[in-house]
């Protein structure tokens, strides 16, 4: 009788542990560090970016639920002098419909884009680290011949999302970095089970919404022969 009671208690504990460990709703604050010397390569870069200003910090928040998420810049009334040097995208994901909605500012124009979720082939490694109190596993995505992206995800937060357009891992991405360390995202604070308004996760209703394919065709027709076009496109729509 005592043995049966102990077994029942153990299973109740196990179920409770699993329920508490598997988080679907959270608000995650990210800090992004961009090395401007690596982003703007060239002999004259140091003429307008000084050593003490080479690391630019931007703050974002990622709100997640079981199937919806939004990654967006954190609102602030402060406008930095060199704010234009980095881009601040907003990305909505719908994991059920496998679609994403992006808000990008390009050349002073705000673009509203709807497309399918990017499919990336990840290699999950044995590497681990702790981020914002959570144990994370390291994964690698080979973006192209010269660019690798490192991601650290947690099995404890189950939605398969992360910063920017990144998805496809068995848990939420809490750390993201280019191989050269030029751009690094790390979660700094995680609020579990926050009160999330339905409007926070709903994509804005806009009349002019394009697909990324439509934007690419339009831009290729105008700038496709320029040397800067492919690197610009890959950075804007392949990486971020």
The top-level CATH class is Mainly Beta
Largest sheet: 11 strands, antiparallel
Total domain units: 1
Annotation, overall tally of beta strands: 11
- Broad shape: globular
Measure the end-to-end span: 59 Å
**Secondary structural class:** alpha+beta
Instruction: Summarize model confidence as the mean pLDDT.
Output: 87
SSE succession:
HEHHEEEEEEEEEEHH
Taking strands numbered 1, 2, ... along the chain, how are they ordered across the largest sheet? 6-5-4-3-2-1-11-10-9-8-7
Percent strand: 35-45%
Please estimate the helix content. Answer: 10-25%
Brief sketch in words of this structure:
By secondary structure, the chain is of the alpha+beta class. The protein has five helices and eleven strands. The N and C termini lie far apart (59 Å).
């Amino acid at each position: 009788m005592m043995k049966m009671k102990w077994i029942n208690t153990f299973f109740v504990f196990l179920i409770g542990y699993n329920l508490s460990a598997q988080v679907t709703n959270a608000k995650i604050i990210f800090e992004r560090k961009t090395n401007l010397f690596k982003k703007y390569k060239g002999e004259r870069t140091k003429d307008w970016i000084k050593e003490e200003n080479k690391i630019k910090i931007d703050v974002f928040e990622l709100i997640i639920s079981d199937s919806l998420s939004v990654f967006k810049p954190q609102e602030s009334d402060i406008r930095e002098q060199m704010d234009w040097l980095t881009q601040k995208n907003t990305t909505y994901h719908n994991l059920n419909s496998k679609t994403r909605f992006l808000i990008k500012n390009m050349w002073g124009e705000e673009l509203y884009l709807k497309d399918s979720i990017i499919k990336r082939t990840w290699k999950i490694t044995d590497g681990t680290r702790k981020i914002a109190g959570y144990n994370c596993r390291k994964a690698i995505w080979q973006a192209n011949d010269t660019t690798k992206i490192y991601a650290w995800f947690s099995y404890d937060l189950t939605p398969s999302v992360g910063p920017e357009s990144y998805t496809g891992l068995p848990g939420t991405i809490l750390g993201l970095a280019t191989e050269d360390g030029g751009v690094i995202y790390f979660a700094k604070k995680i609020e579990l089970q926050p009160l999330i308004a339905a409007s926070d996760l709903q994509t804005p209703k806009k009349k002019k919404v394009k697909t990324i394919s439509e934007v690419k065709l339009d831009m290729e027709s105008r700038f496709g022969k320029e040397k800067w076009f492919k690197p610009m496109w890959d950075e804007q729509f392949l990486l971020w």
